[in-house]
Design a protein that fits this description.
It is built from nine helices and seven strands. With about 300 residues, it is of the alpha/beta class. It binds S-adenosylmethionine. This is S-adenosyl-L-methionine-dependent methyltransferase.
């Protein structure tokens, strides 16, 4: 990890996983007062609410590199140790360039992946993970599920994880990386994270899913290899903080139509809110939280 990662502060007390019951299908822990009981969705039959614009694709690309830096690579350390990634294994993810000897599959409900210019060792398939992964049992050495907080409902997570375990070979690894959206800071940055929490909860999603990953993976029978909890204080300087501050501001910009409606701010007021995000993060010591966990499928389940 680079020097900027050392700015991350490990504070075990605030990074302890949430109470186990918060990871269950207990809607009472998720329901908050909401201004809009019938929120719009971005795709018919899909719960996914982040936009599919070029700006959002750019944000996700930047976020990909910020995640890599935050967790020290594309595959967490202990998982990389048990998988012969350089020799080539079967991967369900988007790591084709990092591991040219691997056969890499990726799925999405949108046809976002380029059909012509793409690494030759990658295959993209249109599929909805909630309907069941379109792969045979015991197919993959590594499966990654990442940044699906805005896609899966609380009750989808155990089903999707069980399906990942099904398609993993015995001894294969599931890697999961998700944020933990928690109330933090003050002013514009606090309004932003509260809006994200509200939008997730309105859709039956768990904004704190990052802190539930380990519990859910253990319950699915996986043997935990890596667990990394990261807390980033946006009042600190450095490249990593700058990347994540940019990501927060970008999500507010790319999700503007939905957030304007949720917050009840529009036009110049929303533009002023966007401008205030970065200074308020510094002023109020806004904190971002993220979790990365890997778990191995036992040789005999
Ligand atoms: C925030 S992006 C993360 C993309 C990628 N996993 C990453 O880590 O960069 C979430 C992606 O999941 C896709 N998605 C949403 N719901 C899905 C579902 N039910 N099954 C498969 N993909 C889904 C979205 O279209 C979007 O491209």
């Amino acid at each position: 990890m680079g020097t900027s990662v050392s700015r991350l502060q490990r504070k075990p007390s605030s990074l302890l996983p949430v109470q186990e019951k918060e990871c269950d299908i207990d809607r009472s822990t998720l329901t908050t007062s909401s201004q809009h009981s019938d929120p719009p969705t971005s795709l018919e039959n899909s719960n996914y609410w982040l936009p599919k614009t070029y700006e959002e694709q750019d944000r996700l690309m930047g976020q990909h590199f910020a995640i890599k830096e935050l967790f020290g690579g594309n595959v967490l350390q202990n998982a990389a140790r048990v998988l012969p990634l350089d020799e080539g294994v079967m991967v369900l993810d988007e790591m084709a360039t990092d591991y040219p000897n691997c056969e890499v599959y990726g799925i999405d409900i949108y046809p976002t992946y380029p059909q012509t210019i793409r690494p030759p060792n990658s295959v993209f398939m249109l599929a909805d993970a909630i309907d069941g992964l379109p792969f045979a049992d015991n197919s993959f050495d590594l499966v990654q599920v990442r940044l699906m907080v805005a896609a899966f409902k609380v009750e989808d997570w155990p089903r999707v994880i069980a399906d990942c375990v099904r398609i993993l070979k015995p001894g294969g690894v599931l890697q999961m990386i998700e944020p933990d959206y928690r109330d933090s800071g003050g002013g514009a940055c606090q309004l932003l994270v509260r809006t994200l929490i509200q939008v997730c909860e309105q859709r039956g999603q768990n904004p704190r899913i990052g802190s539930c990953l380990e519990t859910l993976m253990r319950r699915a029978g996986l043997l935990i290899l890596d667990r990394m909890a990261r807390e980033l204080d946006h009042a600190h300087g450095g490249k990593l903080v700058a990347e994540w501050t940019y990501d927060w501001r970008s999500i507010a910009a790319t999700s503007r139509p939905l957030f304007e409606q949720t917050i009840g701010l529009s036009g110049d007021k929303y533009t002023a809110f966007l401008k205030d995000i970065e200074p308020s993060m510094k002023q109020y010591h806004f904190k971002s939280f993220g979790y990365a966990v890997t778990g191995r499928k036992p040789m005999v389940l």
